[in-house]
Amino acid sequence: MTRRMDQITALIPLKRPLTLLCLAAALFSLSGCVTVRTRPEQAASLQTVCEQNGVNWYWDSVSQAVTMSRGALSARGMVGSEIVVIDQQKIFLSEPLKRQRGRIQVPADFYRKVILNLLGSEGTVSLRPCRIILDPGHGGKDPGAIGSAGTYEKDIVLDIAKRLKTILEGYQYDVKMTRADDTFIPLEQRTEIASQFVADLFISIHANASTTNRASGLEVYALKQLDRQEQKDPQRIKNLDILFRKLAMQRQDKSVENIVTDMLYSYKSSESFALAQAISEEVEQDTRARNRGVYKAGFFVLRNTLMPAVLVEVGFLSNAREERQLNSNQYRQKIAEGIARSLREYITRLSY
Ligand SMILES: [Zn+2]
Fold this sequence. Notes:
5-stranded antiparallel β-sheet; alpha/beta; 20% strand; disordered N terminus
């Protein structure tokens, strides 16, 4: 549009403003059917930018969800939000998708960040690296489980988390720990750190204890279904506030906010279990430990985080043999490698 106007104005003497005005009006009324090439770096209508690039799009006027697809690749966004999910990875636009005069307007960086990714073009911006929170349980005044030989859970899980961080950073993921030393961090704060970091995944690491010294093996927990009251836990609401502030979401529209909240929850519910299964299988393979399976639970850090979250119980400190194993550097390294590999495979599967 701009280019056409420029070309035409150059031919019209400036002393004829009325003619210019009429021409501008005529051009404006024609703009719906005249093909106007969209420059990559300018705000445009979703319809124009998709149609020019052979991208299928669909806007659901009730949920405000926008779906775009080309070949096997698809992207999802929402009017009022600047987040677009491309094959499960979040990207952040400079401004939210907006509805203007019955059309969806996309910001200037939409072409570069979304369309080029859907086209699989060269020069595609790389998607944001996966952000992972590692949460070694307990710490400081809270030792967690204590083995019969005096091993503290807090030390074992911190060491595993540090090893895991090193491996994951080697894969170019962004990793943050809720604690990197022997400090007591309340559960509330752990979930807030995850929202502040706008994490994609939350991995809590613990060691088990049982009243019987025979119990052994690995357990991985995913979130159980939350009832309405649990979904409205004050900590959960606080974390949503933190996340929305971090994302600079437009807060005026409560319905958009509710839809995004529901989207986050259903995504978390479906993905947490898949992630837990992946971890359970890989760690079993590396450690040859007894695999006690994947469970659903309502632990605080699973309940009140907003991203897919799992809690890994790496073994029983109440079992003398497992306590010895967990005290070995080699065994802890194997656990870290198993978790890291399962995360990488899980993330890769989401990206393609
Ligand atoms: Zn624990």
